[in-house]
Amino acid sequence: MTEHTSLPLFAALDLDTLREARRTMDALSGIVDAIKIGPRLYAQGGAPFLKEIVDHGFKLFLDLKLHDIPNTVRLAVETLADLGIFCLTLQAAGGRRMMEESVAARDRLGSTMKLLGITVLTSFDEKSWDEVAPGCPMDAAIKKRAWLCGDCGMDGLVCSPLDLPEVRAVTPPTLLKVVPGVRLVAGGDDQSRVATPADAFRNGADYIVMGRPIYKAPDVRKAVAEIARSIEEGLACRK
Q1: Which residues pair with 37 in a beta bridge?
Q2: pTM higher than 0.85, yes or no?
Q3: Which of 17, 49, 73, 204 has the smallest count of CB within 10 Å of its CB?
């Protein structure tokens, strides 16, 4: 089988334990080259586990969705900047000053770590969004936050695959579009706004993030090969 180590794919290790994560990393070695971890595994393993992932040869996407006052987020960015992380997420809802100070701190340290702004989480639908942002249409928030990421000098953003057409209309093409909520078959989990890999790349994604469709698959290599075929389909029909 053809191996796909240069796929624009982050395999999300949304697992319960470091042991499970290490076992999955071993299974993914040689077939994907980028991994995402979130707060649970970071809380368990800390900086040593981040180094372990990087030393394993993977690009590391650290998905902490930092959101606090500008000084607090800046200090976190400074601490993480020299750990070999490929990209780190911040909540765009934290605002201009928070993002600009984070970019400036990263640049002062000469780090290559990319900073990505979260627009609106893919778990939101219109009803749940209205509960936290009454009177603000979700699409308006997505477009404004996407524009702000570009204006603040962020390297990229994270958005639903369904939001890509609107996001691309208000951001420069150089701004990376990283897309979770991607499924080969829709349904069955907590993601509300989803699409296939082919749909995501057809609409302009630069990277996709997939977790459960990979680590829950009976055959990880077969699952990645199927994802690769869908990615190639989407890239061939890029809008």
Answers
A1: 62
A2: yes
A3: 17
pLDDT tens for 90-100 read: 999 999 999 99
For residue 28 the two structure tokens come to 């993914």
Look up 65 and say whether it is catalytic: yes
CB atoms within 10 A of CB 14: 16
pLDDT in tens, 44-103: 999 999 999 999 999 999 999 999 999 999 999 999 999 999 999 999 999 999 999 999
9 bridge partner residues: 208
Q: How many residues does the chain have?
A: 239
Residue of 65, 114, 143, 177 with catalytic role: 65
pLDDT in tens, 198-237: 999 999 999 999 999 999 999 999 999 999 999 999 999 8
Task: Give the β-pairing of 87-91 and 59-66.
Answer: parallel
- Cβ burial of 110 (10 Å; 0-12, 13-18, 19+) is exposed
Structure tokens at 161: 């695959």
Determine the Cα angle at 226 with ends 25 and 123, to 5°: 70
89 and 140 in contact (C-beta within 8 Å)?
Answer: no
